[in-house]
Specification:
Blueprint: E1 2-5, E2 8-14, H1 20-26, E3 32-35, H2 41-50, E4 55-58, H3 64-71, E5 80-81, H4 83-89, E6 92-95, H5 99-109, E7 118-121, H6 125-128, H7 130-133, E8 142-148, H8 152-160, E9 167-173, H9 179-189, E10 194-197, H10 200-212, H11 217-232, H12 237-259, H13 261-266, H14 270-300, H15 302-312, H16 316-328, H17 331-341, H18 344-349
Parallel strand pairs: 3-4, 3-6, 4-5, 6-7, 7-8, 9-10
Antiparallel strand pairs: 1-2, 2-10, 8-9
């Protein structure tokens, strides 16, 4: 359906207009091969399997992800294979390896992309920055993406709760003339709440900016700055964390999710309302130059170049674990660990 946002119309597809039964009918003769069992692979493959689609998983044998797939019920030789064999068996190849993994495996995968097959992504990185990734697909296949707007863990959790994460979708190459039906079918099959149209380029630009911005990078920076100031001014670790993180995530963000920021303001004290309305523009004006710089770095390809180089280093995983350990061991998040364990549901589960 067409949804108007002011003067702009967008294509939005809901479960009501594209039901699961329709998706199952469209893909009934397809074998969906999910390559990669890291971030998005588990959630998407398990949801598709539970929704009645023919799904197999391809993963490097004896890796940690291979062992995880076995624990999740995939059976070697039946629906769990090596990356090469899964690439050969599948008619729709869901390319869900990491961006670095996609670059590394591409020379092998490309040999299996014969006519009438379909290639699926959940990220526009590989094809948008093809000069850097060297991912150049053949012209005689369908290529499309569905990108859940959340982690694979959240996709699976919400699916099991009967809910869904919203996803974007895009067609890169429509060789068969049936790419849209395939795209929407998989989008519904993985449990999307609804799907909105985008392009490969717009998906990756918005995704990279979002991850570095309000979704992860900027929010961690703001958390860190506010917590530091409160602690420097003599506030206790518990008080500083609660006023910085706990109240936001446990109380206020659910209100924003329900009815928007203005509704959340209306359900706070008049003192909080006045202060938030007086100060939000200062934060916008302070961070806007950073977001402009960030978008320019993404759209120019500089960020992609840096990511590819960093993620391809032999010791990348070692460095990553060290950085994440430093983050986890910071006072802010050590306090957070203690506070989370004090929540009533945590104590009840124990």
């Amino acid at each position: 359906m067409k949804i108007k946002f002011g003067s702009i119309k967008e294509n939005i597809v809901t479960r009501e207009e594209f039901p699961l039964s329709k998706a199952q009918e469209i893909l009934k003769k397809e074998t969906i091969s999910v390559l990669g069992y890291g971030v998005q692979g588990p959630g998407q493959s398990l949801n598709l399997r539970d929704n009645g689609f023919s799904v197999i998983v391809g993963q490097r044998k004896n890796s940690n992800s291979w062992k995880k797939a076995l624990k999740d019920g995939w059976i070697e030789g039946k629906n769990l294979f090596s990356l090469e064999e899964a690439s050969d068996r599948g008619s729709i190849i869901m390319y869900l390896l990491s961006d670095a993994g996609q670059i590394s495996f591409w020379p092998i995968l490309s040999k299996f992309l014969t006519e009438k097959k379909s290639l699926y992504f959940s990220h526009g990185f590989g094809l948008t920055f093809d000069e850097k990734t060297k991912i150049y697909p053949p012209k005689n296949i369908d290529i499309f993406l569905v990108a859940p707007k959340g982690s694979g863990t959240s996709l699976r959790r919400l699916f099991l709760q009967g809910k869904g994460i919203n996803s974007s979708y895009a067609i890169y190459q429509d060789y068969s003339g049936k790419s849209l039906d395939k795209t929407l079918s998989i989008g519904i099959g993985i449990g999307s709440g609804y799907l909105f149209e985008t392009s490969f380029k717009n998906e990756v630009y918005s995704d990279l900016v979002g991850e570095r911005g309000t979704l992860m990078g900027a929010i961690q920076g703001i958390f860190s700055a506010q917590y530091q100031i409160l602690r420097e001014k003599g506030h206790s670790p518990s008080e500083s964390f609660n006023e910085t993180v706990e109240e936001l995530t446990q109380s206020l963000m659910p209100l924003v999710a329900e009815n928007g920021m203005d509704w959340m303001y209306e359900n706070c004290s008049t003192t909080a309302q006045r202060g938030a309305l007086d100060w939000w523009r200062k934060f916008r004006d302070a961070t806007l130059p950073i977001f402009k710089e960030l978008y320019n770095e993404v759209s120019s390809g500089n960020e992609a170049k840096r990511i590819i180089k960093s993620n391809s280093d032999i010791d990348y995983r070692i460095k990553l674990k060290k950085e994440l350990k430093n983050l986890r061991k910071s006072e802010l998040w050590e306090v957070g660990s203690i506070i989370r364990n004090l929540r009533p549901e945590k104590k009840h589960n124990k």
